[in-house]
Amino acid sequence: MKLDWNHIIDDQWTLLLDRDGVINRRIIDGYVTSWEEFEFLPGVLEALRIFAKRFRYIIVVTNQQGVGKGLMTMETVDAIHDRMCLEVEASDGRIDGILVCPQLASDPDNYRKPSPEMAYMACELFPDIDLKKCVMVGDGATDIEFGHNAGTKTIFIGEENPNADDTYSSLIDFANHLKQ
Fold it and tell me: Which of 4, 18, 92, 166 is catalytic?
């Protein structure tokens, strides 16, 4: 049973989004290392347009350990994100911030999801964020664990995830639920 997000979410809420597998096509056993490899998932631009009207902030929180592995630079990741944001804005959507963890999972004291550190960084960027009024949307167990660790609501994109507050097949599926 889907939660009635329309009665939960108001204009004080923040949307936290994973990137690969939620916004763009995930490269299985690989990384998006250039804009040419970046492909929006179906309906994502429309979903971001809907979310822009419903959420106070929309923030991408993404692990990008391809940087730590030397497969790409932070400058490349930033360039991909710049292009992504231009495409989103051209479709009347918005992304208010992007937080990236380039560290390797094996790095000691890393802040990769499921560590809640990027949620705390979002609160530093936008001090009026209330983590109890955030929803984390992701397609991996670490995304849902991140949301729980940060004290947010959670939505899993994909098949059922018993640890998430709710599950949708895609970002546009969740956005269309909000339009009802």
Answer: 18
* Three-state secondary-structure class, residue 177: helix
Classify the phi-psi angles of 53: left when phi > 0, otherwise alpha if psi is within -120 to 50, otherwise beta: alpha
Instruction: Give the active site residue among 10, 20, 92, 109.
Output: 20
pTM above 0.90, yes or no: yes
CATH number at residue 173: 3.40.50.1000
| CA–CA distance, 38 with 63 (Å, rounded to integer) | 15
> Mind listing the pLDDT tens digit for each residue in 53-103?
999 999 999 999 999 999 999 999 999 999 999 999 999 999 999 999 999
pLDDT of residue 180: 67
Q: What phi and psi, each to the nearest 5 degrees, are found at residue 178? A: -70, -25
Q: Which structural domain, as residue segments, surrounds residue 11?
A: 5-179
Helix, strand, coil percentages (3-state) for the chain, rounded to 5, are 40, 20, 45
Domain count of the fold of the chain: 1
The values of phi and psi at residue 77, to 5°, are -60, -45
Catalytic residue at 4? no
